Amino acid sequence: MIAQDKGRFPDSWHQPNFIECIRSRAQPNGDIEQAHQSGCLIHLGVAAIRTGKQLLHFDPTTERFTNSDAANHLLRPAYRKHYRVPETV
User: Fold this and answer.
1) Alpha-helical regions (H) of the chain
2) Is residue 85 a contact partner of residue 79, using CB atoms and an 8 Å limit?
3) How far apart are CA 10 and CA 59, in angstroms?
4) Is-contact 45 53, C-beta < 8 A?
5) Which of the 8 DSSP states describes residue 3?
6) Position with higher pLDDT, 74 vs 13
7) What pairs with residue 58 in β-bridges?
8) Could you tell me the residue ranges of all domains in the chain?
9) Residue 79's pLDDT band (boundaries 50, 70, 90)?
10) Which residues are CB-contacts of 50 (< 8 A; sequence separation ≥ 6)?
């Protein structure tokens, strides 16, 4: 390790729990659905700022903005030519 700021490295609770959940198919301590929803809040705020601080309407079912094509364009990164992920995987 070259440098360490704060926190516990390695995380002595979540990493072993994650590996055990892969083996047992149990639900991990860090729920991925909850993490996705928390991360979405940050991305929604960034989209609002980058589109001119406008009021955006977000449909949680489709995970798309209903009133802004510019904001929808920000939902996926601009991949380089050979690293694009197809719409249907």
Assistant:
1) 14-24, 32-50, 69-73
2) yes
3) 37
4) no
5) -
6) 74
7) 65
8) 14-79
9) confident
10) 71, 74
| Token pair in block for residue 34 | 């909850």
Asked if 20 and 26 count as a contact pair (C-beta separation under 8 A), the reply is yes
3-class secondary structure, 49: helix
Contact 66, 58 (CB under 8 A): yes
What gap in Å lies between CA 15 and CA 82, rounded to an integer?
32
DSSP conformation class of 75: T
Q: What is the CA radius of gyration of the chain?
A: 18
What is the percent of the chain where pLDDT is above 70?
88
- Whether the pLDDT of residue 9 is over 80: the answer is no
- Average pLDDT rounded to a whole number, residues 14-33: 89
pTM to 2 decimal places? 0.65
